[in-house]
Amino acid sequence: MSQEPDRPHVIVQPAGWAVPRGYVNGVAARGTQVYVAGQIGWDAQCKLVGPGFLEQVEQALGNVVAVVEAAGGTAAHVVRMTWYVTDMDVYRKSLRELGAIYRRVLGEHFPAMALVQVVSLVESGAVVEIEATAVIPD
Hints:
Layout: E1 2-3, E2 9-12, E3 26-29, E4 32-39, H1 53-70, E5 78-85, H2 88-93, H3 95-106, E6 112-117, E7 128-136
Helix pairs in contact: 1-3
């Protein structure tokens, strides 16, 4: 286990495993747990910001951070995220732009993450949904 600089949690990385890209294998943290329901690319009035994958990702990530901040935390307190996308090929083709958006919203903070392709999402027009868990230190 290793402590990330300026982070209230510890990264769990089994000895001898290659360091993963863009996510971590595990996170250990103590404090107030915040469970963020799946966030899609819509604004405060529940209107999609547009049809595009990248614009919806940026809004969904911003929504996750907004919920964590409303609970008294910051983006650095997010310890787990699960992404649901409707088109894995679009995700893969967008990695460079996606990385820039991710860093703009969450910085150089990489929680434990999973990515799953789904047939569709509940809200018509949504192409990505992100749920998260944050742990705010006591």
